[in-house]
Amino acid sequence: MKAFCLNNISKVALATLKNDDVVVNDVNEADSILVRSFAMHEYELQDNILAVARCGAGVNNIPLEKYAAQGVVVFNTPGANANAVKELVLCGLLLASRDIIGGYKWIEENKDKEDIGKLAEKAKAKYAGNEIYGKKIAIIGLGVIGVLVANACVNLGMTVVGYDPYLSIQNAMRLNKHIKYVDKLDDACKDVDFVSVHAPLLDSTKGMISKEMIAKMKDGVILLNFARDKLIDEQALKVALEEGKVKKYVTDFANPTVMTYPNTICLPHLGASTDEAEDNCALMAIDELKDYLENGNITHSVNLPDAQAGVKQSKYRVCIIHKNIPGMIANFSSVITNISGNIATLVNKSKGEYAYTIIDVDKEVDVKTFLNLDGVIKVRVI
Fold it and tell me: Alpha carbon 29 to chain centroid distance?
């Protein structure tokens, strides 16, 4: 692996590189790119780049379709920063329940007064809040982060309701047995003290916390959003905050609109901003790149299909990124047959209009033979 870094990448992760795996200073010498927040939409990607790994979950800064069409795999690192986000959600839960911010501001304003102790005893009643123990919370979206938050809330003595129409078996098995799972968003949001949103931003989820959904919530509900700002109908939220329907809104996404809303606690996208999370994300990104470059395996791709054929053991492994059209496997087999080769392993996976095929073969193949086939985008022989 010869990686070029578009951002500062965790030194802890880079220190794990051994032997021929290095970070290069010239992108023209690289075969892969490690990136965090660098905006790549206008970035001219060199032909020598085989893969891009985003050290984090969000990939809004990367032109996924453009790179797929060029045969460049884009990876992300889902779950690597999950614990960091979970802890910040719990912090938001406490900030919204207890007026910690108000109390801290009062202390700052009066810290130079000699009788600050006595004054604080008189003033503290204005900053009284509520305990979260025994309260009820709805977790909307039970991915890796949602499951961690849900389980933590159970351990804090809360009653937890979970909702996710696409709950995976793996995540379902991780849920605490005391969490009540419901299959309707309405059922999750009604009669709860808190709603914490952890859904991905898709066309189907944009504005999912709508005017109608807020109306079905309990008066004085506290809404937490550490997923994506567009999951909330902001105009409906404004009205709900002004009328007191929503008591507090805690978000990790600052924008000019939300900043003007009453009873809102806005954080500067701190969810994954811990040293540990940055290390974990970079370590996962490096592992994904190495496995792809050395074995042709794709894990956690966001623009091409995942496919695994294990550690390369055959003499040659052919990795083909191609269009997802009929007859491709037959064409690949014919190429191998024409050189009297034997196929030991063949893995084919598709995702939308793209597909990826891994073929282990005992004889050397000419890359150009595959590239001449209609629908083939990129071919690599390991």
Answer: 29
Q: Position 5: which residue type?
A: C
Nearest to 161 by CA among 143, 144, 184, 130: 184
Q: Are 148 and 83 in contact (CB under 8 A)?
A: yes
* Cα four-point dihedral sign 68, 72, 76, 77: positive
Q: Tokens at residue 351, please? A: 């995702």
Strands ordered across the beta sheet of 136-140: 180-182, 159-163, 136-140, 194-197, 221-225, 246-251, 264-266
Closest CA to 106 of 89, 82, 126: 126
- Which three-class secondary structure state does DSSP give residue 227? coil
**What CA–CA distance (Å, rounded) separates 102 from 109?**
11
State how far the Cα of 36 lies from the Cα of 365, in Å rounded to an integer: 37
d(CA 145, CA 164): 12
Which segments within the chain are labelled E, that is strand? 2-5, 22-23, 32-35, 51-54, 73-75, 136-140, 159-163, 180-182, 194-197, 221-225, 246-251, 264-266, 316-323, 343-351, 354-361, 376-381
SS3 35: strand
Length of the chain: 382
Query: Contact 226/89 with Cβ under 8 angstroms?
Result: yes
pLDDT digits (tens, 9 = 90+) for 311-367: 999 999 999 999 999 999 999 999 999 999 999 999 999 999 999 999 999 999 999
- The alpha-helical segments, DSSP class H, found in 99-193 are 100-110, 116-123, 144-155, 169-174, 185-189
Q: What are the tokens at 240?
A: 């709900």
DSSP assignment letter at 165: T
- Structural tokens at position 92: 């938001």
pTM of the complete model? 0.84
Torsions phi, psi of 218, nearest 5?
-65, 140
- Torsion 69-280-91-151 (CA) sign: positive
